[in-house]
Write a sequence for this structure.
């Protein structure tokens, strides 16, 4: 297949990937998702998040989950993972989490017309199938999960897989740049973000090292190059342009 031009990808990939990230984050952080987790047996929404999202890894030690998630404080991961998997095991937690994702999509992507839903599902499916899962366990795990038959629910599950894909690539890129998890978090979001991810001892005036900020920016650029390469193999230039437009529409429907 033909490749989108470098200029097209340079301009579009960061925006496309950011929209996918934001839609995925919206469903994960939605209080409705927490309520559904509670209905499914998870009193603690963070336990539902860790066991649900990480459940595709199987019955593993929390240290494995910490490695796959990347930027969370290890002690927080262990506490939430152990609490979550105690409810119904890891694989069942993933299935319940996937169903919550599908239901969120039914509700928040309903504004897209059927043709747009089907086309974006098709194009994103090609991207997911083309991507190499080497070194990306969460992406590979979610790609292997069963999905619903179609419609906005399946599209949302596909968006979740795309989000895991880019997040895993970015984790590889930050690691390759020599950044420790906390360094990455401080460089990207500061102390408030660090505390949200479980690093409770971070002071209000904690600042990222300038060299860490520069390396994090390099990692961001590397991640964009990695996703762009897959887009170029999976889609023709015109298909990529169509994909980018449809992602924008999905973002507007889900986040608007």
């Amino acid at each position: 297949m033909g490749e989108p031009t470098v200029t097209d990808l340079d301009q579009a990939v960061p925006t496309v990937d950011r929209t996918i990230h934001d839609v995925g984050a919206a469903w994960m952080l939605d209080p409705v998702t927490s309520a559904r987790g509670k209905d499914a047996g998870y009193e603690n929404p963070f336990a539902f998040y860790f066991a649900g999202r990480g459940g595709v890894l199987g019955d593993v030690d929390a240290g494995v989950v910490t490695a796959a998630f990347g930027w969370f404080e290890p002690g927080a991961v262990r506490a939430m993972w152990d609490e979550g998997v105690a409810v119904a095991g890891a694989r069942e937690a993933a299935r319940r989490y996937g169903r919550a994702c599908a239901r969120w999509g039914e509700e928040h992507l309903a504004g897209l017309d059927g043709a747009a839903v089907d086309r974006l599902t098709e194009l994103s499916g090609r991207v997911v199938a083309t991507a190499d899962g080497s070194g990306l366990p969460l992406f590979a795990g979610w790609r292997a999960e069963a999905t619903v038959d179609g419609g906005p629910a399946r599209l949302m599950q596909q968006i979740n897989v795309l989000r895991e894909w880019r997040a895993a690539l970015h984790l590889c890129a930050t690691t390759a740049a020599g950044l420790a998890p906390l360094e990455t978090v401080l460089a990207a979001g500061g102390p408030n973000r660090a505390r949200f991810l479980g690093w409770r001892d971070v002071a209000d005036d904690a600042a990222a090292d300038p060299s860490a900020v520069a390396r994090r920016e390099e990692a961001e650029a590397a991640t964009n190059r990695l996703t762009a390469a897959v887009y170029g193999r999976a889609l023709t230039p015109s298909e990529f342009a169509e994909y980018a437009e449809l992602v924008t529409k999905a973002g507007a429907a889900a986040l608007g």
